[in-house]
Design brief:
alpha/beta; eight-stranded parallel beta barrel; TIM Barrel; binds cytidine-5'-monophosphate
């Protein structure tokens, strides 16, 4: 279970900490993303670290090198275990973030955070990318961006579990692959796409029908680990389950 990272996608501290308490003894790694961080700020990270938990700060930095470096320094100062940035930010920004994070961690006498590059969001479809003028298949784009991450000395990438095997084969077993877009047919809210295939349905295709799943390149937890993922990130299949602890335990059952 130490390779499962639960996404604390809430807009308030109380709900986030309630889930952490509920999953106590089962899950020790949590992801603080845009919704929670924007709602409650860095204090939530300090709180989780004070409880001895691991934190993946998922803010997907995407800016000029100086700004990304300062954000990386701040993330290292908070003591996060992993943070990420967009590979489209460019090589200079990636290297600057890594150096700044390493220096800050050394100042605090602790190991540097792992830095992951974001390739292509698992909610993106090939059609969407072609529409922007990028005439390149998603798997190839993922590989090109991953190559940039490797060259810049990052620790790994966030990528669909469907790309994990190819990434490991090309960039080595030590290069981390962390995968969101995990789905199962057994757990979670009914709107979710089934695991194991590319879900071509566009987000909110029929607004009258209610919520659609925005993840399009999904696998089950077991399939993801079998494909070589080092960590999986799971949000709604657990946070929206009637019994989140049971949902976590069922992920690997
Ligand atoms: O609810 P669900 O299981 O789809 O949550 C996936 C989590 O992983 C969300 O918090 C989302 O922000 C995050 N994530 C993602 N794709 C990435 C990086 C992070 O879905 N490329």
């Amino acid at each position: 279970m130490d390779r499962i990272i639960i996404a604390l996608d809430y807009n308030n501290r109380e709900d986030a900490l309630k889930l952490v308490e509920n999953l106590s003894g089962v899950i020790s790694f949590y992801k603080v993303g845009l919704e929670l961080y924007t709602s409650v700020g860095p204090e939530i990270v300090r709180n989780l670290k004070a409880q001895g938990l691991k934190v993946f700060l998922d803010l997907k930095f995407f800016d000029i090198p100086n700004t990304v470096a300062k954000a990386g320094q701040a993330a290292a100062s908070l003591g996060v275990d992993i943070f990420n940035l967009h590979l489209l930010a460019g090589r200079e920004a990636l290297v600057a973030a890594k150096e700044a994070a390493q220096e800050e961690a050394a100042r605090h006498n602790r190991p540097a955070p792992k830095i992951l590059g974001v390739t292509i969001l698992t909610s993106s479809s090939g059609t969407e990318w072609r529409e922007t003028g990028l005439d390149c298949a998603v798997p190839e784009l993922v590989m090109r961006l991953t190559e940039r991450a490797k060259e810049a000395g990052l620790d790994g990438v966030v990528a669909s579990a469907q790309d994990a095997a190819a990434i490991k084969e090309r960039f080595g077993q030590d290069f981390l692959v962390v995968s969101p877009g995990i789905r199962s047919n057994n757990v979670g809210a009914p709107f979710m796409a089934p695991a194991g295939r590319i879900n071509p349905t566009p987000t909110n295709v029929d607004e009258g029908k209610g919520e659609e799943d925005d993840q399009k390149r999904t696998l089950s937890a077991k399939e993801a680990f079998a494909a070589g993922c080092d960590y999986i990130v799971v949000g709604r299949p657990v946070t929206r389950a009637p019994d989140p602890k049971k949902a976590c335990l069922e992920l690997l059952a």
